Amino acid sequence: MTIASALLIAAVVVAVRLIPSVRWKAVVYALPLPMTLALVASGAPVDARHLLGLVLLVGFFAVVTVLHHRWGLHILLADAAAVAAYLLIALPLAGLGRLSFPLVLACVCLLWAVVGARRPPVVPGDPPRRPHLGHVLLVVGAALLIAQLAGVLRAFAVTFPYSGVLVAVETRRTLPSFTRQFARASLAMVAFLSTYYLVQPFGAVPAAAAAWAAHLLVAAVLVATAGGHAAAGPDRDGPAPRPGVTPGTGPGR
């Protein structure tokens, strides 16, 4: 993983921090920027294991959500546990032989129809927060450290949550909603991988271009059919205000 890759990962995290809408945070995070860079730079072909990796990526956020929001585990500990779960599942799968791409694709699409097709409810967003220089440097440094795992994951390195580890921290207040939104947005990533798989005999660059076209088309359809709009005004990622308490008037505000 190069410095450019780490900077790209950091850019995704900073962008998620700046975007107020939970839905658009998920849409931006689902953009296959690090995935494209990894595939084109390595020249490795897409296979069925990449689809399994995408399932693990969505599962990563689900694990963090359960551990942090339901079990009350600190967000950093929940993050670490979810990374460990990803590795424990991915490492044995990385050594699997050739799997049927159409069969795995059908299973993934069926899983999405059960989990991701339902429209998540609209929740309040988060006011844009400008990252200071120290935060940006911390994100870049963390991305460089996380990226060292790429060598042992093989195909699953493409879908490893390099930026997801940091995005989970940034979205911790609305992580359940973000996870549902990302599960829905992941269909565009399925389209990306499927198109790349079909076009890759013609080369990595044409495959990436066609895959991006498919991703953007599916993402546009998902956004257009999401329905609902967040309430006007500066929304916040925090918990809902207590009955009888006007937002912004509590202690310390």
TrEMBL record:
Q: Which keywords are on file for this protein?
A: Membrane, Transmembrane, Transmembrane helix
- From the record, give the transmembrane residue ranges: 27-44, 51-69, 75-94, 101-117, 137-169, 181-199, 205-226
The coiled-coil segments of this chain are none
UniProt keyword annotation of Phosphoprotein present? no
Keyword Lipid biosynthesis among record annotations: no
Q: Where is this region: Disordered?
A: 231-253
Q: State the protein's name.
A: Uncharacterized protein
